[in-house]
Amino acid sequence: MVGFNALLVSLVSLAVTGTYADTVARSNNRIPWLDYEGIVRAGQDALNYTVYRRELAELSGASGPLAIRDELEHRSNGVPRCKKIRKRKEWRQLAYGEKRDYIKAIKCLQTKGDYNISPVTDNLYDAFTQVHQTNWTDFHGNSWFLPWHRWFVWIHAEAMEHECGYDGPVPYWDYTLDYRNPSGSPIFSTDPVIGFGTHGNIPQTEIGLGGYKVDNGAFANLRVSLPIPHYLTRNFSAWKTADPEGKYGYQLGESYSPAAVAQTLAAPTFWEFEGAMDGFNVSIPIDPTAPITLADIPIAGVHNAPHAFNMGDWNGPTWLFGTQWFPAGVVAPNDPMFWPHHGNVDRVWWKWQQKPGKQWEFNGKKGLDRINDALPSDILPFYNLGPDPVVALTLKTENWPMCYTYSG
Ligand SMILES: *[C@@H]1O[C@H](CO)[C@@H](O)[C@H](O)[C@H]1NC(C)=O
Ligand SMILES: *[C@@H]1O[C@H](CO)[C@@H](O)[C@H](O)[C@H]1NC(C)=O
Ligand SMILES: *[C@@H]1O[C@H](CO)[C@@H](O)[C@H](O)[C@H]1NC(C)=O
Ligand SMILES: *[C@@H]1O[C@H](CO)[C@@H](O)[C@H](O)[C@H]1NC(C)=O
């Protein structure tokens, strides 16, 4: 009991004083459809419960822990509750009208102001890209990766709803259905209303390592702004020359095959799951100063591979390798495919969390150097895109404020 209380006080004081309150205050309630105060309270509540659960696992005997639970349930009064739990769906499960409205709402974000979130652009579409590239090594390739992106995709879905009226299912792209021919997936339909389009045919030299202007589908001729204005660019041929024999599957498909996902889901700890999922630990770490070679292909992982099979906006930093924008530009959210892709990354984590004892597990390392321990009380930086949440608040999608789930 003494251990529990000491731990509780030290973790909670992190959340209620100093850093957490300050970061929330800095972000200044600027987005009207986010309940900043509620998110702070829910974050404290989530932290309280995370500590409680950890202690419960360590204690034997029921009377102490039950008393603690009652006390915590009493305290959590005042934290908003979900009005309903929304179910996310695979892209193919959306009705025609839902696909149409979802795509319309993504484009609509280019017409909405950004509440001064981004210092360099002025619409909400670009603000997401800007936030994603700010100090990006803090939340890629380490334990913050999954919680940070979960919250990011959720805020994007909220923006789609509150700014642009989309309240249909939030889609994910389950690429295990397409791993033998990913770019042949129906999500890349050239339909001008409901297709994300292919990689197009018109070679580009505006930025990065070339590629093709997306000239078909609903995002044909889309202009995006970061790091400088350019046409949305893709190149689905990226791995054809690097892996001519298809050792890693067509377009790295073996990295996100049903077998690869099953193997990832078998990871015994959050940290090992993160390493396999994100991709940094599938083999030797990539040298960020060197161009990608065949030897680097096995770094793929479920998350990295779908970024890497395309050489263009949604690739991320490798596309900008050797240009003046490397390594700061991590502009993957320029491509609308970012959202269904990261929806699926989040879904695979959700699946892992459904295993016994995994819902609240969070551990591993943070930072580019992966030296310091990552904790449920860590505060995720969102650079004015809403209040900065504590990790503990992101661990259960069915809890307020996220209020969503997956069917499997
Ligand atoms: C969390 O615990 C702290 C410390 O006991 C308490 O002051 C606070 O009200 C609790 N917060 C919530 C939302 O339960
Ligand atoms: C990025 O991180 C550095 C080092 O922690 C910090 O000084 C800087 O303020 C951060 N950038 C922004 C935009 O907050
Ligand atoms: C697309 O990628 C392939 C394979 O890396 C490369 O040979 C080709 O030049 C790229 N096309 C453009 C237009 O950049
Ligand atoms: C990464 O791989 C090494 C070597 O296989 C292993 O010792 C380490 O635990 C792994 N780390 C993660 C996060 O999975």
UniProtKB/TrEMBL annotation:
- Fetch the PROSITE patterns from UniProt: TYROSINASE_2
Q: Which GO terms describe its molecular function?
A: metal ion binding; oxidoreductase activity
Signal sequence residues: 1-21
Give UniProt keywords alphabetically: Copper, Metal-binding, Signal
Q: Where is the Tyrosinase copper-binding domain?
A: 335-346
Name the chain's protein: Tyrosinase copper-binding domain-containing protein
**Native organism:** Serendipita vermifera MAFF 305830
